[in-house]
Amino acid sequence: MAPAFGRRAIAADVVDAKATAIDPSVAPPRVTSKVYLDVKFAKYKEPKRLVIGLFGEAMPRAAENFASLCAGDNAGGRSYAGTRFYRALSGNSIQGGAIGSPNTGRSGLSSLEDGATFPPDNFDIKHSTQGLVSAVRNPNGEIDSRFFVQTEDDAGWADGRYAAFGIVLEEGGGMDLVRRISNVDVQTPQNSPKDPITIVACGRLDV
């Protein structure tokens, strides 16, 4: 089932990605760089680390946008540090990265100098395995800072609609941490975690 990513439906048409589909459950794209998110649950003192591998060859713009927002090395100095996971959908996905609207998830700001949105590189990567990290798109179909991590093996509803650009690695908390976030108590109707789950630090890692 497709999750809700905001109040308005995405205006851009769904594209047919079958002709150039990359199936990561069979042959994942090459990880060209790695980043980390240190995630803190309100109830616990110590943060847990989530490590994500990025597909810089298959998805260069989306991957670098995410990496730059982890490192804070973009012209605007924007970073995921201090933002929250604003939606947790058990058995489906977790959503975060809403720079500029950290508690609502209604919008985000990219790594570009003015925070402008930009179109996805492509929709080549199928959502066929858990742990894929994909860009949330705004009502115009473009990418900002928001992202989601899928927790189901088959998220075919996302194919041709959302651009996958990375995958959760088993370093750090891995998928156990992602599932832990997805299963927290939430407030309806937005499915926002009742207790804040905050990215307290983030950055680039050596491959």
The portion of residues assigned to helices is 10-25%
Give the domain tally. Answer: 1
CATH third-level topology? Cyclophilin
From the 3D coordinates, which CATH architecture would you assign?
Answer: Beta Barrel
Q: What characterizes the major β-sheet?
A: 8 strands, antiparallel
- Residue-averaged pLDDT, rounded? 91
Q: Round the Cα radius of gyration to an integer and report it.
A: 15 Å
What is the distance, rounded to the nearest whole angstrom, between the alpha carbons of the first and last residues? 34 Å
The number of helical elements comes to: 2
- What does the overall shape look like? globular
Order of strands across the widest beta sheet?
A: 3-4-6-5-7-2-1-10
Describe the structure.
With 207 residues, the chain is mainly beta. The chain has one domain (18-205): Cyclophilin, CATH 2.40.100. Helix content is 10%, strand content 29%. A hairpin with a 3-residue loop joins strand 3 (85-89) and strand 4 (93-96). The protein starts with 32 loop residues before the first strand and ends with a strand. Keywords: Isomerase, Rotamase. Residues 49-204 form the PPIase cyclophilin-type domain. It holds the Pfam family Pro_isomerase.
Question: SSE layout and pairings?
Answer:
Layout: E1 33-41, E2 48-54, H1 60-71, E3 85-89, E4 93-96, E5 132-137, E6 143-150, E7 164-172, H2 174-182, E8 186-187, E9 192-193, E10 197-205
Antiparallel strand pairs: 1-2, 1-10, 2-7, 3-4, 4-6, 5-6, 5-7, 8-9
Summarize this structure briefly.
This protein has two helices and ten strands. It is mainly beta and about 210 residues long. The chain has one domain: Cyclophilin (Beta Barrel), CATH 2.40.100.10.
